[in-house]
Write a structure and sequence with these properties.
Elements lengths: L1 H59 L6 E2 L3 E3 L2 E8 L4 E10 L2 E13 L7 E5 L1 H4 L3 E2 L2 E5 L20 E5 L2 H10 L6 E6 L4 E4 L2 E3 L6 H10 L3 E3 L16 E6 L7 E4 L3 E9 L1 E4 L4 E8 L2 E6 L4 E10 L3 E6 L2 E6 L1 H10 L2 E10 L1
Parallel strand pairs: 6-9, 6-20, 7-21, 8-10, 8-22, 9-12, 13-14, 14-16, 15-17, 16-18, 17-19, 18-20, 19-21, 20-22
Antiparallel strand pairs: 1-3, 2-3, 3-4, 4-5, 5-23, 10-11
């Protein structure tokens, strides 16, 4: 009996010892697996972060295309990035290392352009703005297609041409015509069938744009935003390097912004009470939105080569001197073609 009990006890001890050894082995194995997973996850995060960092760098400096970075330290690991392709397309290969683990992330991306609709007329007035739009002073609106120098017509007879003033619907045409003090100073397309040009050029040019969304989209993409007076010398863009400028007078302390600048090119977004001091010469598109009161205070000639969009609920354009709005598809195309991109869109991602 005693020997049997001893044998049973010894057997139990052996079995318990075996289970303890197995549990220790499993524990060590689990710990090793956890550590390996941690290393792999960290390497993956470093590689993915490298892709994002160098897409931002490439967005700011296009000359980085077809180059390889030096080793960069990150999260106690490191990564290198190779940029390959021809913009707007790029392949980004990020190789990361963390505590002996390596991970490679590859992304194909596309550099998206800023999207802005073609201007359908020299001066476009959206339906929401027609009733309260006020055009005061000596304004000449010409829908004939001008060259970017703002003086020479593309064709001697002014064809092809767009309407001097475009609106969204037929009922708006009469509202605008009845409100014009000098219809003879609104020149452009008068017969869309024959392409004839003449005075009193107001027509339907609905392009189906939600201007509230467009305003927000372009404002978010602005290169610069002003809530105070703009001093002379500030870069408002050129046709070869146009700039998106948001002038948000509504956000300024006194609600009024004065632009002490004589020239610029790109897209100028105006919101609030804005005064242009000095002869103003702008190439591209001016978007007037929300409650906007624009004053051209120069006694000389102010000129916009491209066009103006009036999409605010209450918009007025006033001038001491003269404002010439000359439609120019060349200026608009140059601005749209040379505008900065709107960031990279990831097309595919490999790991």
């Amino acid at each position: 009996m005693g020997k049997s009990s001893l044998i049973i006890v010894m057997g139990m001890i052996v079995m318990v010892s075996f289970f303890i050894l197995r549990m220790n082995a499993n524990t060590n194995e689990n710990v090793s697996t956890t550590v390996d997973m941690f290393k792999q996850t960290q390497a993956r995060l470093i590689a993915n972060t490298g892709v994002e960092i160098y897409l931002e760098k490439l967005y700011s400096d296009h000359t980085l295309i077809n180059s390889t970075s030096s080793s960069q330290n990150l999260f106690n690991g490191s990564f290198t990035v190779k940029l390959e392709g021809t913009l707007p397309n790029v392949r980004v290969t990020s190789t990361a290392k963390f505590m002996g683990e390596q991970h490679i992330s590859v992304a194909d991306a596309f550099l998206r352009p800023i999207s802005f609709p073609d201007l359908p007329s020299g001066l476009y007035i959206a339906s929401d703005a027609v009733t309260n739009a006020k055009l005061n002073g000596d304004m000449n609106v010409d829908g004939r297609d001008y060259l970017t120098d703002g003086t020479s017509l593309k064709n001697g007879d002014g064809k092809p041409a767009v309407f001097g003033i475009g609106v969204d619907q037929l009922s708006d045409v009469n509202s605008v015509i009845n409100g014009l003090k000098n219809p003879d100073k609104v020149y452009g397309l008068v017969d869309s069938t024959t392409g004839d040009v003449g005075a009193g050029s107001v027509g339907v040019t609905n392009i189906g744009v939600d201007w509230s969304k467009m305003y927000q989209y372009v404002s978010n993409a602005a290169d610069q935003t002003f809530i105070n007076d703009i001093p002379s010398g500030v870069n408002l863009g050129t046709l070869s390097n146009p700039v998106i400028t948001l002038v948000n007078a509504d956000a300024s302390g006194d609600g009024v912004i004065t632009i002490n600048k004589t020239s610029g090119a790109g897209i100028l977004i105006v919101n609030g009470n804005v005064k242009f001091a000095g002869n103003f010469d702008y190439k591209g598109i001016i978007l007037c939105y929300k409650n906007t009161d624009i004053s051209f205070e120069s006694t000389g000639t102010n000129k916009v080569t491209g066009g103006i969009i009036v999409a605010g609920k209450l918009t007025s354009i006033n001038m001491t001197g003269t404002l010439d709005i000359n439609y120019s598809s060349d200026a608009i195309s140059a601005v749209k073609m040379n505008l900065k991109s709107n960031g990279f869109k990831i097309l595919s991602w490999y790991e």
